[in-house]
Amino acid sequence: MTNIxxxxxxxxxxxxxxxxHASEGELENYVCSSIxxxxxxxxxxxxxxxxxxxxxxxxxxxxxxxxxxxxxANVLYREDVQTCFEFMIMGIELIKSQYxxxxxxxxxxx
Length: 110
Hints:
By secondary structure, this protein is an alpha+beta fold. It is built from 3 helices and 5 strands; from the N terminus they run ββαββααβ. It has helices at residues 26-49, 73-76, 79-98; strands at 2-9, 12-19, 57-62, 65-70, 103-109. It has a 5-stranded mixed sheet with strand order 3-4-2-1-5. Helix 1 (26-49) runs antiparallel to helix 3 (79-98). It is globular and about 40 Å long. Pfam families: Peptidase_Prp (PF04327). InterPro entries: Peptidase_Prp, Peptidase_Prp_sf. Belongs to the Prp family. Keywords: Hydrolase, Protease, Ribosome biogenesis, Thiol protease. This is Ribosomal processing cysteine protease Prp.
């Protein structure tokens, strides 16, 4: 099971934690890969396409774990950054609607 927590402050998404693996098996691996792709795409889009300095993002990456926290308010309040979070969340929700047994998703106010 993959547990996903999206952190939001004052209606602005600021980070997330993706933790765990969907499970063992071919279908589960596809779900896990899809979720991982969404989270990593957001991270690299911030850095490589939106030119956010890596020093303004705290990240922790391990097997089955990715945590991101935007440290700079100027980055946090950018509309393009928030749109990227919304796209990622939409993708997760679509996966969750088809495979709810493999992931949990919660939005956490911080």
